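Hi F.,

I've been meaning to write this up properly since the lab meeting, where we talked about keeping a consistent format for the predictions we share between groups. The idea is simple: the sequence comes first, exactly as it goes in, then the C-alpha cells exactly as they come out, then a line or two of notes. No screenshots and no reformatting. I'm using this chain as the first example so we have something concrete to point to.
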Amino acid sequence: MSRRAGTVGGRTYDESDVRIRPGKGSRPRTKNRPAHEDAETAMVVSVDRGRWGCVLDGDPERRVVTMRARELGRTPIVVGDQVGVVGDLSGRRDTLARIVRVEERSTVLRRTADDTDPFERIVVANADQLLIVTALADPPPRTGFVERALAAAYAGGLTPILCLTKSDLAAPDEFAAHFADLDLPVVTAGRDDDLSELWSVLDGRLTALIGHSGVGKSTLVNRLVPDADRATGVVSGVGKGRHTSTQSVALPLPGAEAGDPPRGWVVDTPGIRSFGLAHVTPEQIIDAFDDLREAIDDCPRGCTHLGPPADPECALDALTGSSHRRAMAVRVLLASVSATGTDDAPTDARDDTL
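Output, unedited:
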C-alpha cells in the first residue's frame, strides 16, 4: 500500500517525514507496581505537613523522616501505623526515605468532629489499649467523656483503661463506681501516687492516651517519659522538628537500664474538647462483650438494644446476674452514642497539671 505524499517547495514528503510529539501523560501506564521486597519495617511515630517520622524495627534510636510514595496516592498514614520504608534509611539530617506500604491495621481509634459529622478521623492505629485520663477534681470529672471514649475503644478493638489523676484532691471510689459493671480496669496516677500499677498496665504495649485539657495528661506523660519534652522534638523529626499540641506523637517508655529496648510506647494525643461518635454502631460496642454478643442474636430485627419502650423484646432484658448488670451499663454507653450533643467537656479547662 502506497503512502500518501505531497510536494512542498519542490520537495516531496510522505508520512515517514511527520514527527508527532507525544502529549503530556501519554506514556502508557502499567498496573504493575514495584514489590519493594527490600522495604524495612517501621512504625510511624509522628505526622507533620506531609512528612512522617518513623522508627525502624521498633528501635527508637533508628529514626528516619519519610514521605509518602507516589503509588500510595492519598492513602492515610497515622501514628501507630506499621509501614514499609525504602530509600535513605541513615536518618541523617535533611534525608528522606519513602513509605511504600501500609500494613493492615489491627485496631483503630477513630473520632469525628461531632455526632453529625460523617467524616471519620483515625487518631491512632494499632494501639493495644486506650488510657482514658480523667481528673477527679479541678476540673470535676464528667462521665460523658469517659462513656464516649469507652464506646470508641470498644468499636475500634482497643482495651480501655480508666486513669484517674489529682487523687490528692478527691477519692477515686465514687467516680470509678459508675463503670464497675463494665469490668473496666481503673488505675490512679495522682501527683503523690506510686505509678507501679500503671507501669504494669503499660509494659510491653502500645497505649494511646486521651483526655480533656487540664486533666494532667501531659504531666503524666512527663512522669512516664522523663525526657518527653526532648524526645518529642527528636522523635518527630519532621517539619521544624517540633511537636505541637495539635499533633499526636508516640514516645518510647524507657527501659529499666540505659540502652535497654523500650518497655512499650505511649501515644500522647492532643487535648480534645469533644469526641464525636458518628461512626460507632451499637453492635460494635456490644461486640466487645462475649455474653452480650451472644444474647443479641435473639433480638428482633431492627432492635437498637436500648430497651423498653423503644425495644420491648430486646434480648438483653432476659439476662441475669452480672451479665444483666453489664448489659444495663452498656445501655448507658449506647444512650451516650445515640444522643447527639455534648460529651460533658469541662468548660473551665486549666493548665495541664496533676
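Notes:
The domain at 40-102 is CATH 2.40.50.140 (OB fold (Dihydrolipoamide Acetyltransferase, E2P)).
The longest strand covers residues 40-48.

If this format works for you, I'll send the rest the same way.

G.
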